[in-house]
Design brief:
The complex is a heterotrimer of chains A (about 250), B (about 325) and C (about 100). By secondary structure, chain A is mainly alpha-helical. The two termini of chain A are about 35 Å apart. Chain B has about 325 residues and is mostly helical. Classes of the chains: A mainly alpha (about 250), B mainly alpha (about 325), C alpha+beta (about 100). The interface between A and C is medium-sized, with 12 and 13 residues.
Chain lengths: ~250, ~325, ~100
């Protein structure tokens, strides 16, 4: 494999892995604090799936890189500017409405991505995606159902998710960004074309928002930077918490 | 155990006045003696029902409150493997709480009522979850000692005379088998790790040992309800019996870890084969049950916050379901 | 269909039945709360099949279940105890007769 493509593949696996890890971490913050016991268990299931995907993707990224970094080395020993996750994933939970909107916007992208990635020319990515897509299909069912309930629920719930939608919308453009590295992967049949994902994403989001009786925000200025390591302030706190032990005891094995 | 508040004399003060034993009582006792299971709609003495509601709901509350001290470390678990294991474990506790609330509901009490009792501070839960988890080793100590103690108590409950409780316990014990192993494995990694890790492990054992012994509840001579609960086969072994079993099982495990149990009086009695241990500080136990433990207030506050902040979500889901049902009715009508 | 109940605060109770694998019947595993039937199915999936316990779920509103009364156990079920002619061993067939 050419160094360029290898570099691109490393970056790609890292971006998917980091996005899953950060979002899974956010969901795990709900464990023990959700609005109802059944939902506590459901959110944790999604969190477990996402951290599971992160482990596979980060392990693979470390393998491609070939410098001996494993999943934990990558997760626990990189600072903010080396993280490649989508900015959407690191946004705080705020309330259940924000969490559901964030999750739905992400899931609607992930389900299209993994569905196509399962046919990737890269057999490892294809394998990971084939496993992930089954789980992600359930995630999007769960988050879409909740968005519909909250949008078409009470006045209070409707106002809360409408606010969340407005607030998080500017983080959705980044998921469909395209750069030279990704072009290489698309050309090689390794990664799906982001434009294709966007079309499918738009269709699903429109349908669910309609059922939720919510208006689709207008596409204005989009926040960017996650894939270059330029993050919001939130990620630093998340990593400080997550990485505390391996950073405080660098020689320890847990 | 998770329901130790039940047999504490301090909670009730006096025993209920004796009442007339009826023919129905006798028939009921015969069924229980014959190891027949009692099912929800069967006739049962009011005291049996009341005891079960209290015991099962306290058990359920303990599972739910128990999610909090361990939940503290989900976002700080030091490896991704540890993170998923802990997350799955805390999730299981939530599931166990749910199974138990379901079992309690078969006795004619709603989950909302039970939750209300917990949040108002009226209901008790296990004293153990009012201790803090300041270090990562606490997660190991909880898995090893607290889950270890819980298993001692829960396995006999699988044969409890009340069918729904027994069935919930079968499910719980099946799922719980990985918890203690997870905790011990975690302790082993610390005990065989760096000097700092070993110190962390010993510190956690120092803090959790006595509270773990208190989980079994007051000594038999101080326990208010033991005899009746034994006769009803809600309880199969006495507090002291189970505590002794736990100590005998745990001492060699601590030795294997190279850790020291913080009890200068602990010694093996060669004649009986049992480990004799020092006196338990029951004052501390009673104070914690009364609400004066290091984390009592934080635990209930956290539960209340989750419940209150979730109110609009629960209401929205109900409102949406009602809208949908109304639409379907209109369409059909 | 019953009119929607809008005044209740808590989510209704559903009884959950799971088919462990094809070829076996659905079996009662417990209950849970959900705002609607679809949520009940999803919650059942998350609560009761975390360890691969099933391939199919039924969620039944607890209020819709008609149950027999335990006090009528004697009249409902004991009469079946002496109807031994319903069991194959009631009939004597000479050992020489095969395949019966």
């Amino acid at each position: 494999m050419s160094t360029d493509r290898q570099q691109a593949l490393f970056g790609y696996a890292l971006r998917l892995g980091d996005t899953s890890l950060v979002l899974g971490h956010r969901l795990s913050e709900w464990c023990g604090h959700a609005p109802e016991l059944e939902e506590d268990i459901a959110l944790t299931n999604v969190a477990l799936d996402l951290v599971g995907h992160a482990r596979l993707l980060l392990s693979y990224a470390g393998e491609i890189e070939g410098k001996g970094r494993d999943e934990d080395r990558l997760a626990y020993r990189r600072d903010v500017f080396d993280y490649r996750n989508h900015l959407l994933a690191e946004q705080p939970n705020r309330d259940f409405g924000h969490t559901i909107v964030r999750q739905f916007l992400h899931d609607s992208w992930a389900v299209e991505l993994y569905g196509r990635l399962a046919a990737s020319a890269d057999p490892t990515l294809a394998g990971i995606a084939a496993k992930a897509v089954k789980e992600v299909r359930y995630h999007v069912r769960h988050s879409a159902d909740w968005l519909i309930r909250l949008g078409d629920g009470t006045d209070v719930s409707r106002a809360r998710v409408a606010d969340a939608l407005e607030r998080l919308w500017s983080y959705t453009g980044e998921m469909f960004e395209r750069d030279a590295a990704e072009d290489t992967l698309v050309a090689a049949g390794i990664a799906p074309d982001p434009a294709e994902l966007r079309t499918a994403w738009n269709t699903r989001v429109a349908a669910v928002l309609e059922e939720a009786t919510l208006d689709r925000p207008t596409d204005g200025w989009m926040q960017k930077g996650g894939r270059r390591g330029e993050h919001s302030e939130h990620l630093g706190y998340l990593l400080a918490e997550m990485q505390f032990l391996p950073r405080a005891y660098p020689d320890a094995v847990w | 155990m998770y329901t130790q508040g039940l047999d504490s004399k301090t909670e009730h003060g006096t025993q209920p006045p004796p009442r007339l034993v009826t023919a129905e009582d006798n028939r009921f006792q015969e069924r229980v003696d014959a190891e027949e299971k009692i099912e929800p709609r069967d006739w049962m003495p009011e005291g049996y029902r009341r005891t079960l509601v209290r015991q099962i709901s306290q058990h359920a509350h303990s599972e739910i409150v128990g999610m909090l001290p361990e939940g503290n470390w989900i976002t700080r678990a030091p490896s991704l493997r540890r993170k998923v294991a802990l997350l799955a474990k805390v999730q299981d506790e939530g599931g166990h709480g749910l199974y138990l609330y379901s079992a309690a509901e078969t006795l004619g009490v709603s989950r909302d009522e039970l939750v209300e009792q917990l949040l108002s501070g009226k209901a008790k839960y296990s004293s153990i979850f009012n201790y803090p988890t300041p270090t990562w080793a606490d997660i190991g100590a909880i898995g090893w000692l607290v889950d270890g103690a819980a298993i001692m108590n829960q396995v006999p409950l699988c044969r409890c005379s009340y069918g729904p409780y027994a069935r919930a316990m079968v499910r719980i014990c099946r799922e719980e088998s990985f918890h203690q192993r997870q905790g011990y494995e975690l302790m082993l990694a610390l005990a065989t790790g760096t000097a700092e890790q070993k110190r962390m492990a010993q510190d956690a054992l120092n803090r959790w040992w006595w509270p773990a012994l208190m989980m079994f509840g007051p000594s038999d001579d101080q326990s208010a309800h033991s005899a009746q609960n034994m006769a009803w086969k809600i309880k199969r072994f006495s507090n002291d019996e189970l505590r002794q079993r736990f100590v005998d099982a745990t001492v060699p495990q601590a030795e294997f870890l190279g850790l020291t149990i913080p009890d200068p009086d602990l010694r093996l009695d060669p004649e009986s084969g049992h480990h004799r241990f020092g006196a338990i500080d029951w004052t501390e136990f009673n104070e914690i049950l009364k609400g004066n433990g290091p984390c009592n207030r934080e635990r209930i506050e956290a539960r209340r916050k989750a419940w209150d902040e979730g109110a609009w979500v629960r209401e929205a889901a109900s409102a949406h379901a009602a809208k949908r049902a109304a639409r379907a009715l209109k369409k059909a009508g | 269909m019953a009119p929607p109940n809008t005044d209740r605060k808590d989510w209704p109770l559903f009884e959950i039945f799971i088919r462990p694998k094809n070829g076996l019947s659905h079996k009662h595993v417990g209950s849970l709360h959900a705002a609607d039937a679809r949520m009940a199915l999803d919650n059942a999936r998350d609560v009761y099949t975390r360890r691969g316990e099933g391939v199919s779920i039924w969620a039944v509103p607890a209020a819709s279940i008609a149950a027999s009364d335990p006090s009528e156990k004697a009249s409902l079920f004991e009469p079946a105890d002496d109807k031994i002619y319903r069991h194959p061993t009631f009939y004597d067939i000479p050992a020489a007769v095969k395949n019966i």
